[in-house]
Amino acid sequence: MPYSLLLFDYDGTLCDTRQAIVYGFERTFDHYQVPQPNPEVVYSMIGRGLVLGQMLRELRPELSEPEVAEWVVTYREIYAREAEPLVTPFPGVHDLFAQLTAQGVIIGVLSNKGAAVLEASLAQLGLLPFVALVIGDGTMPEKQLAKKPDPMVFHEVVQPRFPEVPAHKILMIGDTPADLQFARNSRIDSCWVTFGFGEAAQCRALQPTHTVSHLLEIPALRRVPVL
User: Is this entry keyworded Metal-binding (predicted)?
Assistant: First the structure.
């Protein structure tokens, strides 16, 4: 393994959360007494790597910014309370984290998902003990961190936390264009997981450093020589 620090996306990379996300939207829309969104439209938005606020703005363009913020809170409360049982870890994720930890590789989880829900889900799935750094929306309440694909989190959180790890030893692993563009913007290598939610053509166009079709292919990755 040529990398010392692996940064994993969560939704669509470590876990299949599509049913949970759609359920969260349906219950949120029920709460506000508006028609539920088409699940296929929600799936498409997930594949594009949109964050929750962006999805709500597209689904309900009449909402003001304060209303979007309120709906985000409502959605996350419903998701945390009711949707977690619908989350399914992808095959091999526990074995992968155990292998990487045994090899001395540092594991981080970097998601646009709400930080509290993210940590709770990792804990419930038995993955949190392997993870050295969890970054989600709200991780630093005192400072609003820009979401992927903006590299702000990399420069202001990841690098200061692991100053001993050079950028060429860090790999971002994800399933959507937002993850791969984040890696490009941060000037680190990327790995696209083909089994996730991202639109294949868009992900391939971003020319990820590596491509895998199963999580357990990751420990065997080798550095791609620069031509």
Answer: no
